[in-house]
Amino acid sequence: PLVTLVHNVAIKLKNAGYDVAIFGKHDHPESIGTSYHIKGKDTYIIEKPDMDHARAFVEYLKGNNIKKAALVSQTTMSVYGYKKLIDNLNQLTNGTFRNIPLSLTDVSADYGYVDTICNPTKQRQSGTEELARKVDVMVVIGGVHSSNSKELAQKARELGVETHYIQSAAQVEKGWFAGKERIGVSAGASTPDVLIEEVVGKIKEVAL
User: Fold this and answer.
1) Could you tell me the CA-to-CA distances from 44 to 1, 24, 92 in Å, in that order?
2) Beta 98-99 vs 137-141: how paired, if at all?
3) Rounded to an integer, what distance in angstroms lies between the CA atom of residue 77 and that of residue 15?
4) Which residues contact 129 (CB under 8 A, 6 or more apart)?
5) What are the extents of the domains in the chain?
6) If you ran DSSP here, which 8-state letter would residue 86 be given?
7) pLDDT at 3
């Protein structure tokens, strides 16, 4: 349902006259699917929130004389990353990018963005941030290609805590926990509970 929501929002924005761009990964099924619904392979996708990517998007808008544009986000992208991207775009355009409500009841902005990041992703990101502030080492579990899991690990590292990103209990190393009193574990939204339990069990086995 959440993925469908992004598709529907993108279509409605397009029908309202917006050139729709996506904050997401080029090879992620959700971004590919959303692209298909709006402009196909010509859909502009922004993979990173840094100033260089923001500037490239602004130049794309100017170069193609696009007078009305809106951003949507892949549901699993970083909350912090999306905010950073919007902040950078507004810095480059003197505050032009305005929030468009998810209900699309107000589409008067020439340039805007819709918050389509799903609640489970937001909750995991805020929970991981809170946990990372309280522990000496973090273990984040997620797939090799999982956007939201990698974002969890990145955020923990940004907060200055030693962080290890793994895909299985077999990767847990005893040395990570030497001299550490508080250990935090987090996982991406798509990580199976059984895998989380296996990792926690292995940590207890080697660290206690």
Assistant:
1) 23, 10, 18
2) unpaired
3) 25
4) 155, 156, 159
5) 2-117, 120-207
6) H
7) 63
Mean pLDDT by 10 residues, the chain (208 residues): 79 96 92 89 93 98 97 89 96 96 94 90 87 96 86 92 97 96 91 94 92
Which two structure tokens, joined as six digits, stand for 127? 């929970």
Q: Which one of 30, 47, 59, 205 is the catalytic residue?
A: 30
Query: d(Cα 63, Cα 87) in Å, to the nearest integer?
Result: 21
The top-level CATH class assigned to 2-117 is alpha beta
What pLDDT score does 148 carry?
76
**Catalytic (active site) residue 30:** yes
Say what the pLDDT of residue 50 is: 95
- What is the H or E stretch that residue 31 is in? helix 29-38
Tell me if the domain spanning 120-207 has CATH number 3.75.10.10: no
pLDDT for 121 equals 79
